[in-house]
Amino acid sequence: MALQISQPGADPGPGNAPVPRAKRNSFSALLNRSPNIRLAGLLAAPAGWLVLVCIAALAALLITALWTVDTFTGKVSQTWTVDNILQVVTDPVYQTITLRTIWIALAVTLIDVVIAIPISFFIAKVATARWQKLLVVAVLMPLWASYLVKAYAWRNVLAEGGLLEWLGTPVGLNSPGYSESAVILTLAYIWLPYMILPIHAGFEKVPDSLLEASSDLGAKPWNTMRLVMLPILVPSIIAGTIFTFSLSLGDYITAQIVGGTTQMLGTVVYANVGAANNLPFASAVSLIPIVIIMIYLFVVRRTGALNNL
Amino acid sequence: MSETALAAVQKPTAEVPAIRLRRLTKSFGETNAVDGVDLDIRQGEFFSMLGPSGSGKTTVLRLIAGFELPTSGTIELEGQDVSGKAPFERDVNTVFQDYALFPHMSLVDNVAYGLRVRGMGRTERRERAAEALGRVQLGKFVSRRPSQLSGGQRQRVALARALVVEPKVLLLDEPLGALDLKLRQQMQIELKELQRSLGITFIFVTHDQEEALTMSDRIGVFNNGKIAQIGTAHEIYQRPAGPFVANFVGTSNLFDPVVAGRLYGRQEQFVVRPERLSLSWDRSAAMHDGVASLPGKVTSIVYVGHATQVNVALEDGPAVVVLVGTELPEGEQLLGRDVTVSWAHRDAVWLPGEA
After folding, report:
1. CA distance B275 to B171
2. Which of A5, B224, B282, B283 has the most CB within a 10 Å radius?
3. B86 in contact with A at a CB cutoff of 8 Å?
């Protein structure tokens, strides 16, 4: 900008020792020159881990699903067959279980969306800075407790003579007992933080000035929510649904603790791995949620939600 | 006030101020961001609120828009008390500093938004929005998203969006702050012309004194939540009401009461603008009538293109800035040189009271 001419400074400053120069380091210099070596060094370990744990395990699962079990010895026999997969897809029992599992996962997701939006809105846009931090911690807190503790806590709440019955009886409501509804209720509680966090992050990203602009232009709060907030939040909501939907789809513990006789895909897998000792069939069943999740991810990929995970 | 009363009989609406603030106060915790502001803004006026950051000018704007509610005091919009009303109940619109365009909507939907939430039909509102975009030279871009535009273009969209709903008062919150110098100067002219042709009251918040001086019919200078001075650009610059205004609007050389007493026999502060000071490169200043002069030493020289700022430390006086429009003597050592600074008595502006 302006050219400054001023009188030369007389004071050279404290100390006359020269500033030390950086030491020679030929390895760092090599990395600095060749981006490929740099990249290889960074990625080797995580890529190896990814191939080993994720891709190899998935491949093993797929291969196991194509084997069968020797009914006499109970050992896995490596004869190739698609019987397991055919049975899982065509047997009405498993079709019902698949549909029920999808229904439970959808219901859990819907309940969490409905609860999480107002909570996230309050935390991100209404609460003061101090309360924001406290509330985020409060939302995260249940995640620090064991999953089992929470499931068993709900078992008590849902039990005959439990909290829910005690609260519900005066207003004429019954506790769902140990049932499909109980599973939905418990899973909705357990996965709620996974829905609140991305939606909260989404609300944080919406500048206050957008809400003010909407109101300024004549929109009442409901219109601001519907026309400005929700469209901007869609990717965040989808990010949350990916968590709740996929976590519910694979669940087997809650179903066992509060589900009574309710069978989900996870419980079928669990039973076949354990009691029935039929690993190939368990693999075939576990392919169903994987396929469903992959279809879901493929559908939502275009909304940009995957950038919000 | 008898004049106003007489005019009110003849033209009842024209004399109702567009905005009237009375004892307006806004506190955030312990601090008063706005502290008892009284202000009348006339209809059809281009009014600038000028002040450093934290002076309360933006808070006043937000109070008028309804984004904040006053702690005490009243806001009247064309004679109607709107102090407690929500933003969507007030006939004022805002152009935001960050433009606040809806990122998920095309330009035409952005501009049509205000009409949409007021229940106008789809075809008509889109027609009007396209027309408004045409007026700000963005007619070709109706289906683009805000993210595909440059800063200056977004600025125009924000303007079109606020004007399409035909507000009584348009509020502009430092709208040119993010633009580069050339574009800013161009937008200053366009905004001023737009305001003149529409006849709408504009309230323009800025911390840039040059912007305020070039565009405004009147300026309110804010300091610490209070209005330090209200007046036309000319009044504010030529007759600052106090040391704060003198220093904030343009550069001023402030002389304390001691120097004033010695020179003029008057124990009050006065200021002289840098361009009103003249410099002679020796100690032989001609002493003639109507001119005061003081000896000093050059401490630094700053070349600013159209002129040169020479900083001079006066003997028995303050350090002053002299704006020299002519070429400096060439090939000589100017730093540390003994010089004489002089000014005409009529260029000294007396400041009432102590700072």
Report:
1. 34
2. B224
3. yes
